[in-house]
Amino acid sequence: MTSQHSVRFxxxxxxxxxxxxxxxxxxxxxAGVNLPHSCRSGHCGSCRxxxxxxxxxxxxxxxxxxxxxxxxxxYVLLCQARPHSDITVEISAVASRAPVEIKNLPCRVTGLSRxxxxxxxxxxxLPAVEPLEFRAGQYVDVLLEEGRxxxxxxxxxxxxxxxxxxxxxxxxxxxFGERLFRTLAAGSLLRIEGPRGRFTYDEAAAGPPVLFIxxxxxxxxxxxxxxxxxxxxxxxxxxLYWGARTVQDxxxxxxxxxQMQQYPRLTFNAVLSQGGDVAPPYRTGWVHEAVLADFKDLxxxxxxxAGPPQMIEAIRGSFGARGANAAxxxxxxxxYAVDPAPREA
Length: 345
Ligand SMILES: Cc1cc2nc3c(=O)[nH]c(=O)nc-3n(C[C@H](O)[C@H](O)[C@H](O)COP(=O)(O)OP(=O)(O)OC[C@H]3O[C@@H](n4cnc5c(N)ncnc54)[C@H](O)[C@@H]3O)c2cc1C
Ligand code: FES
Fold this sequence. Notes:
Layout: E1 4-10, E2 14-19, H1 24-30, E3 48-53, E4 56-57, H2 68-73, E5 75-77, E6 82-83, E7 87-91, E8 103-116, E9 119-125, E10 132-134, E11 139-143, E12 149-153, E13 159-161, E14 163-169, H3 175-182, E15 189-196, E16 210-215, H4 219-231, E17 238-244, H5 253-262, E18 266-272, E19 283-284, H6 287-294, E20 303-307, H7 309-319, E21 329-333
Parallel strand pairs: 1-7, 16-17, 16-20, 17-18, 18-19, 20-21
Antiparallel strand pairs: 1-2, 3-5, 3-7, 4-6, 8-9, 8-15, 9-14, 10-13, 11-12, 11-15
Bound molecules: flavin-adenine dinucleotide and FE2/S2 (inorganic) cluster.
FE2/S2 (inorganic) cluster binds near residues 38 and 44.
């Protein structure tokens, strides 16, 4: 028989049961407790909590989303931690604003357009009576059969909306991506849950320059953030770096140039990892290296980066040495989904 333990959440003082094979985050979700999280793979750090009492196991052995200091202080990642005894965890009170309501909604695909050979723009219309309110940078889960879900960031302007724009990259053999590229069409119905995620834009209109770094479809949440930052007004400099494989993967470059014409405080660098001998303004190499080449001192600069785990790890590993403050590094890791084991589903 599977052993179960109690998990007490502070400061709410809410108690749930969690089986030893189940992550605390997953058990909380099944019990209807919405905890902050994003990647569910141990990379982004959104689900960190202070272990006040008891013991947990980390089956993968590693928690890359925690700094050495956080580990020493007793923080754990709830998407990785399995209880090994009854435990008490304190959820870090990072959210500065009231949480937005997470909804489970049917929606209709109203448009599909190829942005790049393996990237589809998906427009979703929500029910007229159920608009969704979200913050720039958040994502929704597309709900699939047998408890499977796939996360996609919202590329639309934040606020209350009835239409969502997503940018979905096709990965070979991917359950949802293949379905999207092969069989879904305008008019198809999907079910989504959201908004989710703590990767949100929280800067004032005035202040030091802000760095936005997108890797591939990591441009989706960055686009939403840029819309918010530009609409805020003021003279704050905004620097966008978009890392992609080839020119055609910088799929909404035209939109970026339109914004730059309207808002000269926005600058843009496209950095191609498979650029070959492309001419300027394109740069070649890794996107984080382009940022490091341009900014010798990153102290005081907020950084918002979204994209594949390798890009986020490279930024995490190199920006600190140039003075970047850990509290000002905001990450959204586009990890692939881990499907629930049958007994969890
Ligand atoms: C918070 C968050 C936001 C995200 N936002 C976006 C977004 O806006 N646009 C977007 O395109 N993706 C985004 N992703 C990534 C996306 O959710 C996953 O890539 C998703 O699993 C793809 O679903 P699928 O069913 O097509 O492929 P799956 O069935 O999940 O994948 C099949 C196999 O393909 C490989 N694979 C899948 N995805 C990746 C990947 N990203 N990197 C490397 N290998 C992979 C794995 O081997 C996997 O087992 C986001 C992820 C997170 C956590
Ligand atoms: S580290 Fe747990 S949700 Fe990202």
